[in-house]
């Protein structure tokens, strides 16, 4: 992992002014930036990173924007500053995971869960329509729009660094690999992902189903197992509907 480039409040990144840091992950940071009276999100990634997750994110966002997909942020700008590649995009509200944890019982009402779930599923459909799998569907990769823009009830899908195209250059399905590396988050990963089988569109839907159970019930049955891949996989294989 390359060193994370850190920006200071008030620092100018080309036409964008850094307001504050919003978060930091293993591959980069996210900042709130401004241009005039408008605010946006700026994501960074070191140029030394071997796996260019942010470039994949830019590619997917631009394809979605061309199709006017309603559950995707707008890619406002990209560039290189100091020793990092950056992406400027729509600034969103809170992610579904943070919202869920603030609610009584850490769960949505049935009506809210259904409404949110439908929008999350629509977002996956839009992603699949441009030829990509997400491979990391989970509540923290969805967020609401901002209240100021009147978009609190709109759900956006996030983080496309682990996306993979399931079509070749001729628009045909790519042949599956004999063995595929684990991708995603253990709690929400599909069974195919656990057994290193090539994933496809139905695996994003399986992860969405686990997400829906969590936001409706407040927890998944295997939550206590943490990131123990094999144990979680066996739990998923042997689960019965009564366990939910």
UniProtKB/TrEMBL annotation:
ATP binds at residue 43. It comes from the Eukaryota. PROSITE patterns: PROTEIN_KINASE_ATP (PS00107), PROTEIN_KINASE_DOM (PS50011). Residues 16-244 form the Protein kinase domain. GO terms for molecular function: ATP binding; protein kinase activity. The keyword Nucleotide-binding applies. Pfam families: Pkinase (PF00069). InterPro entries: CK1_Ser-Thr_kinase (IPR050235), Kinase-like_dom_sf (IPR011009), Prot_kinase_dom (IPR000719), Protein_kinase_ATP_BS (IPR017441). Keywords: ATP-binding, Nucleotide-binding. This is Protein kinase domain-containing protein. It comes from Elaeophora elaphi.
